[in-house]
């Protein structure tokens, strides 16, 4: 839902969205831990519903479906025009320079791990690869369907993408410090991450400027 279409007239800023997303992270983590723990239990759904605090089983089934198939659930709430607009925004994102940068980074990481079997078991290499992937996912969430999502949510996801990019750079630094990766290859990896990071910062600046133009404030 876009800011201007909120029927309650309430607009969430980036900080409210961040609190909401953190709470969703906790709920998602708790749900999957419970699912793993009670996977083979005959009363699995009822037990999970109780642990999650869901009042009725039907609510549990609905919410678990949202966890497991978020995009499919969300698509049901889009009109034909909104779905077409979302598809157009996604296509625009996949044709954008920042998307190309994320693809180049992922290809670089895949080639590195293909050539260096020893790095596949290295914890810092795993952090570097996974946080780079998370960065790309958060960017997609932030920049796809901008007109059908709240601006505060866009900013919150961009901040998450920036955090993931910083984590990737930190992991890369640890790989160099430990001697697991030479400085030449690390420099190439940093160039890829910094290209993405710079684009995130630019998008954050534009989004916050748009927020001030719409709603005022700092």
- CA radius of gyration is 20 Å
Please tell me the overall pLDDT.
Answer: 81
User: If helices are DSSP runs of H or I spanning 4 or more residues, what is the number of helices?
Assistant: 9
The ordered string of helix (H) and strand (E) elements is: HHHHHHHHH
How much helix is in the residues? over 70%
Low-confidence stretches: 1-7, 56-60, 67-71, 73-78
Between the first and last Cα atoms, what is the distance in angstroms? 23 Å
Structural class: mainly alpha
> What is the tally of beta strands?
0
Estimate the global geometry from the Cα principal axes.
flat
Biggest pleated-sheet summary? none
Percentage of residues in DSSP E strands: under 5%
Would you give an account of this structure?
This protein is mostly helical and 218 residues long. It is 76% helix and 0% strand. It is built from nine helices and no strands. The radius of gyration is 20 Å and the shape is flat.
Produce a short descriptive summary:
By secondary structure, the protein is mainly α.
Question: What brief labels describe this structure?
Answer:
mainly alpha
């Amino acid at each position: 839902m876009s800011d201007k279409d909120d029927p309650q007239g309430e607009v969430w800023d980036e900080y409210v969205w961040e609190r909401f997303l953190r709470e969703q992270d906790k709920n998602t983590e708790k749900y999957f831990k419970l699912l793993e723990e009670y996977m083979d239990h005959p009363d699995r759904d009822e037990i999970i519903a109780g642990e999650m605090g869901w009042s009725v089983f039907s609510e549990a089934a609905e919410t678990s479906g949202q966890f497991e198939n978020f995009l499919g659930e969300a698509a049901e709430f889009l009109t034909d025009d909104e779905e077409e607009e979302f598809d157009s925004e996604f296509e625009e994102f996949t044709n954008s320079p920042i998307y190309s940068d994320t693809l180049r980074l992922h290809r670089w990481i895949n080639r590195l791990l293909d050539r260096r079997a020893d790095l596949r078991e290295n914890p810092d290499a795993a952090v570097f690869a996974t946080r780079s992937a998370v960065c790309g996912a958060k960017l997609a969430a932030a920049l796809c369907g901008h007109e059908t999502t709240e601006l505060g949510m866009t900013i919150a996801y961009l901040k998450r993408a920036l955090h993931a990019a910083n984590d990737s750079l930190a992991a890369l630094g640890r790989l160099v410090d430990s001697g697991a990766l030479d400085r030449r290859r690390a420099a190439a990896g940093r160039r890829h991450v910094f290209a993405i990071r710079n684009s995130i910062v630019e998008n954050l600046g534009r989004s916050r400027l748009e927020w001030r133009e719409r709603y005022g404030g700092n």
